Amino acid sequence: MDSWRTAIVSTGDGNIRVRGYNVTELMTRATFTDTIFLLQRGRLPSAGERKLLDALLTGCADHGSGAPSCAAARLAASGNRASLSAAVAAGLLAIGDEHGGAGEQCMEMIARGVAKAKSEPASSEPTSMAAVAARELAESKAAGRKVPGLGHRVHKTRDPRTNILFAIARAESLAGDGVAFMEGLESALEQEGKTLPINIDGALAAILYDLGFEPPAGKLMFIVARVAGLAAEVAEEHVREKPMRIRIPVEYDGEPPREI
Amino acid sequence: MDSWRTAIVSTGDGNIRVRGYNVTELMTRATFTDTIFLLQRGRLPSAGERKLLDALLTGCADHGSGAPSCAAARLAASGNRASLSAAVAAGLLAIGDEHGGAGEQCMEMIARGVAKAKSEPASSEPTSMAAVAARELAESKAAGRKVPGLGHRVHKTRDPRTNILFAIARAESLAGDGVAFMEGLESALEQEGKTLPINIDGALAAILYDLGFEPPAGKLMFIVARVAGLAAEVAEEHVREKPMRIRIPVEYDGEPPREI
Amino acid sequence: MDSWRTAIVSTGDGNIRVRGYNVTELMTRATFTDTIFLLQRGRLPSAGERKLLDALLTGCADHGSGAPSCAAARLAASGNRASLSAAVAAGLLAIGDEHGGAGEQCMEMIARGVAKAKSEPASSEPTSMAAVAARELAESKAAGRKVPGLGHRVHKTRDPRTNILFAIARAESLAGDGVAFMEGLESALEQEGKTLPINIDGALAAILYDLGFEPPAGKLMFIVARVAGLAAEVAEEHVREKPMRIRIPVEYDGEPPREI
Amino acid sequence: MDSWRTAIVSTGDGNIRVRGYNVTELMTRATFTDTIFLLQRGRLPSAGERKLLDALLTGCADHGSGAPSCAAARLAASGNRASLSAAVAAGLLAIGDEHGGAGEQCMEMIARGVAKAKSEPASSEPTSMAAVAARELAESKAAGRKVPGLGHRVHKTRDPRTNILFAIARAESLAGDGVAFMEGLESALEQEGKTLPINIDGALAAILYDLGFEPPAGKLMFIVARVAGLAAEVAEEHVREKPMRIRIPVEYDGEPPREI
Q: What is the pLDDT of residue D75?
């Protein structure tokens, strides 16, 4: 078989090197968040970038045992005691476009919007970004597409995590086109009389875009964050609860009893 | 890299061959159950063996949406609409020693018991197997080990699926040491005044042992069967239900609100 | 929590009933393939339908240990000996649009095409289906879309499994719009001088469509079939091989050694 | 259904609270590593504990694309482009007792050893811990058990990551019974003329034990760390590589061609 090429880790000189840095040097001088940034972006973060990524990962780690990811992990932990990795993996498998996954689509939308704004001549940037966001909204409405990153089943105001992330981004001078685009979308909707505030997926997408991450990171950083929560949910299930304790109540509405 | 060796499938002569048979010939002349048997055992089954394996796989395919495997698959399907394989896999990950997994341990116990019985001189076999089962029980009790394959949280009588499997095995002259050992265990318990009938894991283990399968098949055949059910559960979730419909109710009993 | 509704399995009267049938009656009288059909379609198959589904499942069970699904399962089995379900699940997770997943897209395309053909007035059906297939091809070409279910990286002739499946479908009078549509596509391409024969995904889609399955079954039936193969691959890894035997050769082409 | 109880996250007062702290306050003032510690231990770490956990998580994030976890994730990413969470999960499923999993067993061994040492009267602790380690070694040898956390397939000297972790633990006054026990084991082996240095699993176990984590954390913290690496491996596969590019070479050594 041909070798698999990679630009992430080398072990050729007897040292484990991550993106060129000796892992032992990283262990001494970098935080785990630095390592996560380095693995994705190929360089270590600035102090501001680290602070922002710390906030993002902390904000997505866990928002309740009832979320599909946490509940699936607990069900697996309840039935399959022998493999902790299986339980965490089951939790991850509940993450997709509907749960924790809109960030990726949202980053693609931002990238599209920013590319359009950049290709337009002579327009001042902030105006342009809001205008492009408004146009994206109009096009999505015309095409019947749902706009990712906005709105919430329950809350009508901005997720407090969105506010914190944007505040840190501004304080660290890291708020860029991503934040501008998402706030442009939100304003355009408000002008139509609709209250669809930026949700955590939209905030995560804006921040990761401004930190220079690729769209897949919109899902992958949520996954990295959520695994911290899943690890705690699974540990609690093992330490506090009995196996097979969970019973889901089911109501049957299919064929009545019959014979072959 | 060195090649990976395998004795399962070859494609060298331009044909896909499963255990030596051309897959197109199998498609014409074999059932899916024949193929499952062939993949595990390296030969095609007799008509009786096919009937018995059909009964076993049908009996384990699904016993209700509330089982951890089915519920985990539905939770994943609810949150992650984009990947059907992820939802089925999440269901599988709930299968382990506690749910659908006792069959493997039970097959190891039977193999141990049968090996002991065979190594004893001059004893007639049926007697010996019951005696060895009784001894296994005594040893397990002394060591504080739980005996797999017996008892049920709810039912006090034999699982009706156990009776059907054993009846087919007898009708097809395929009931051997596995069935004898498990019935020996059950009898030994009854003589102690305990009602711990052979459950579906124990029946599956006895039957697979008598069909010549290796212990890992005690879990793997449950998995093969259950995937048929999971595929239906996931399809129903996609076709009938909305994404993110599932909310698990959670009660918090941890630290009260506090400040850093 | 509200109950989860389901039309698949009931246990209300003390019996496990699958789509209304007592599981013990199914165990006595149905094959595993019957059960798979029943779970998906809500009724038992005819003899011809059973034969066709048996051929399809047998044909997709395994086509070599080097496929991503089989290789991922073996890697997991090599590193994580404690959980057989984890290894099978890892194999499933390699199944998606690129591997074993085109069947679903292909079924959606057939459904779209058939709906169009039906909505056209007064045309004889076989002609119409070929015409609609040709039009679908033209539209896909114009839109730059890849047409699923056709072509193969290596083979330039029809997959022999396609021929067998279509032959059985015809012999059992079960070849319908699905087969006609896919053959229409293939012919339309040939008239353009292109040799893109119907591959196994396309054949599976045509057959499942003609058996009345929903599009998700295009992936789910491949999954059900493939788990039979994965169970054998994982069993072989456990029984014949040592843990952690697999080494993938890696070549690093990233940043040279550097200091923080 | 009964509610599921949890002591991890509450949302009752409209705020997401993790172990009692408002998530927005954590986002402003805690690092991701603080959050990981908080989720597992129920309190925020000291500066020294944070530094030690950062080093541990950084040290386990990735040690090469050829490891079973990374390779399984890449195989899944290659075949199943549609679900990033499925690819990361496939990688996790390769983690078990053989790969990244010895930490849990090792923590259980340390806990057993420490409990014994504590129950012995009037012995000075450092001596006692080395003595108990030596006795554990003797008992394991007698019982034919492998001792977890020691030795490496290739390296004969201590993993450099072990040295760094123990040095940080000492500098931060956090090296306790865990480190003492593992070093006691290593010394006892050296006195027998065997060079089996503490490997990364053993170092991780010693450190987590001294940080007050429960044994399951021996696997779970490796999982949390490794997901950072898997996220980078999967992103690289998506961004740099074509789908279905991976071919594993297979050599068949089974039944020769035969007919039914």
A: 92
pLDDT in tens, A223-256: 999 999 999 999 999 999 888 777 788 899 999 9
Q: How many CB contacts within 8 angstroms connect chain A with chain B?
A: 132
Q: Is C9 contained in some domain?
A: yes
Chain C residues in contact with A12 by the CB 8 A cut-off are 252
CA separation for the pair B76, B84 (Å, rounded):
9
The reply to whether B143 touches chain D by the CB within 8 Å rule is: no
Amino acid symbol at C5:
R
Q: What is the pLDDT of residues C140-165, one digit of tens each?
A: 889 888 889 998 766 678 889 999 99
> What's the longest Cα–Cα distance across chain A?
76
Strands D250-252 and B4-6: parallel
Name the token pair of D61.
């994030």
Tell me C246's DSSP state: -
Q: Residue C81: which of D66, D86, D97 has the nearest Cβ?
A: D97
Q: In Å, how far is B206's CA from the nearest CA of chain D?
A: 28
A169 in the same domain as A146:
yes
DSSP SS3 for D121: coil
Subunits with at least 3 CB pairs below 8 A relative to chain B?
Answer: A, C, D
Span A197-217, average pLDDT: 96
Pairwise CB contact (< 8 Å): D248 & C71 = yes
Q: Residue A1: inside a domain, yes or no? A: no
CB-based contact (8 Å) between B85 and chain D? Answer: yes
What's the domain count of chain A?
2
Tell me: do B26 and B65 sit in the same domain.
no
For B21, the domain range is 9-45
Q: Is residue D82 within 8 angstroms of chain B, CB to CB?
A: yes
Q: For chain C, say whether A250 makes contact (Cβ under 8 Å).
A: yes
Instruction: Please choose, from the candidates A44, A163, A199, A56, the residue with its C-alpha nearest in 3D space to the C-alpha of residue D35.
Output: A56
Structure ipTM: 0.94
Neighbour-count burial for C90-105, b at 16+ CB within 10 Å, e otherwise: bbbbbbbbbbbbbbbb
Minimum-distance CB partner of D64 among A11, A58, A220: A11
- Statement to judge: residues A139 and A201 lie in one domain: yes
Mean pLDDT per block of 10 residues along chain C (260 residues) reads: 86 90 97 98 98 98 90 92 92 87 91 85 62 89 89 79 97 97 93 90 97 95 97 94 82 93
Rounded distance between C-alpha atoms, residue D73 and residue D158, angstroms = 29
- Same domain? C40 vs C68: no
Same domain, A194 and A87: yes
Q: Are residues A33 and A53 in the same domain?
A: no
* Cβ separation B68–A97 shorter than 8 A: no
Domain with residue B122: its CATH number is 1.10.230.10
pTM to 2 decimals? 0.94
Contact D94 C78 (CB under 8 A): yes
Q: Which of C1, C5, C8, C10 to mutate to test the interface with A (most CBs of A within 10 A)?
A: C10
Answer whether B66 sits within 8 Å of A247, measured CB to CB: yes
| Residue B162: CA count within 13 A, CB half-sphere | 24
Do C21 and C68 belong together in one domain?
no
Residues A36 and A111 in one domain: no
